[in-house]
């Protein structure tokens, strides 16, 4: 087997603080792997600028002029981590035999990349990077993340535990991924569905090299909710079940109260009345909200809007002079 061509795809959103370091380290790693005859010298690094507002694109563009192995893709606006990743994978797949996705902040140990490629050479189509420990993450991040995996499992979604979006995919796996037309693509849930032969590589997660997390609590909640509702209708079933149970219980209560009345006991009735009104009102609101969540999803999917819009693709289209950043 000749050495496979590797493409490393890095989504970047306002990452000017870490990007120079990231580019440097990835280039060095690429050189090493080429020297070890693990990957072909045609291997490249693709940096996707996800509509950053700082100088991220300028840095990518300049690096691409200086180093031929550095490629750049610029999205027209911020499309979110998952979509930026997809944009990068789809732009790079024609040039590569295998593709690795990694975050720009280098939290994920680069040395796992060597093992990823070795697994690929052993015939695996998908290699998951799995965090062995995450004690460098904050207490809050660790526990919310754990809660998220539990919740997903409870709702019957098959996720690789403690695996984020650090993984290798063969070109045909990315081709298969492209066939999933959902606008709301939750990669960690979809990739196991592809069904190709897969392996895991364990690594330690480090602290962010520099800069702030781009996943504040609001985005984390949105991400978790998207993950659950695009993969499972268990929450809706659960709500129906609660509705059914409370219906049966209130029937029984009704019968009981009627019996008390018939037996001549006076009932003030106010307490039970007010509690049941509030209880049922609450349940109904939850149920409505949940159904709304799914209807919103249907609404989004039926619009078939593009997941991202490419502004500049330095790899696949030569850049017109007038568009180069000053
Ligand atoms: N990212 C992106 N678009 C966004 C948000 C994040 O491309 O809208 C990128 C970001 O630059 C980073 C990766 O996604 O490379 C993961 O983000 P981050 O490290 O902030 O998330 P965390 O590790 O805190 O979960
Ligand atoms: Mg990070």
Automatic annotation (TrEMBL):
What would be one Pfam family of this protein?
Glycos_transf_2
The Glycosyltransferase 2-like domain extends over 8-176
State which residue ranges cross the membrane.
238-259, 271-295
**Major place of localization?**
membrane
Q: Which InterPro entries match?
A: Glyco_trans_2-like, Glycosyltransferase_2, Nucleotide-diphossugar_trans
Q: How does it sit in the membrane?
A: Multi-pass membrane protein
UniProtKB keywords:
Glycosyltransferase, Membrane, Transferase, Transmembrane, Transmembrane helix
Q: Where in the cell is it found?
A: Membrane
* Residue ranges the record marks as coiled coil: none
Keyword Transferase, does the record have it?
Answer: yes
Q: What is the protein name for this chain? A: Glycosyltransferase
Organism for this UniProt entry? Geobacillus uzenensis
Q: Which lineage is the organism of this entry classified under, starting from the top rank?
A: Bacteria, Bacillati, Bacillota, Bacilli, Bacillales
């Amino acid at each position: 087997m000749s050495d496979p061509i590797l493409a490393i795809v890095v989504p970047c959103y306002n990452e000017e603080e870490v990007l120079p370091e990231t580019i440097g380290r990835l280039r060095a790693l690429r050189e090493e792997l080429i020297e070890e005859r693990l990957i072909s010298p045609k291997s490249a690094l693709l940096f996707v600028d996800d509509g950053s507002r700082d100088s991220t694109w300028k840095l990518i563009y300049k690096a691409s002029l200086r180093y031929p192995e550095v490629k750049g893709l610029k999205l027209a606006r911020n499309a979110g981590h998952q979509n930026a990743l997809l944009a990068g994978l789809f732009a790079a797949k024609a040039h590569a035999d295998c593709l690795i996705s990694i975050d720009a902040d280098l939290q994920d140990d680069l040395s796992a990349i060597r093992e990823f490629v070795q697994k690929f050479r052993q015939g695996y189509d998908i290699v998951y990077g799995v965090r062995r420990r995450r004690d460098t993450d904050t207490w809050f991040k660790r526990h919310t993340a754990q809660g998220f995996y539990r919740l997903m499992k409870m709702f019957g979604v098959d996720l690789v535990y403690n695996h984020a979006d650090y993984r290798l995919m063969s070109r045909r796996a990315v081709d298969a991924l492209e066939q999933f037309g959902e606008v709301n693509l939750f990669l960690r849930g979809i990739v196991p569905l592809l069904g190709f032969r897969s392996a895991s590589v364990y690594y330690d997660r480090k602290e962010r090299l520099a800069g702030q997390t781009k996943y504040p609590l609001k985005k984390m909640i949105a991400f978790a909710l998207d993950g659950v509702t695009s993969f499972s209708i268990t929450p809706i079933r659960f709500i129906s079940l609660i509705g059914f149970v409370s219906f049966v219980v209130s029937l029984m209560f009704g019968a009981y109260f009627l019996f008390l009345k018939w037996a001549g006991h006076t009932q003030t009735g106010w307490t039970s009345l007010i509690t049941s009104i509030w209880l049922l009102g609450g349940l109904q609101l939850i149920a409505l909200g949940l159904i709304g969540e799914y209807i919103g999803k249907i609404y989004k999917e039926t619009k078939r809007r593009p997941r991202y819009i490419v502004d500049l693709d330095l790899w696949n289209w030569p850049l017109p002079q007038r568009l180069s950043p000053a």
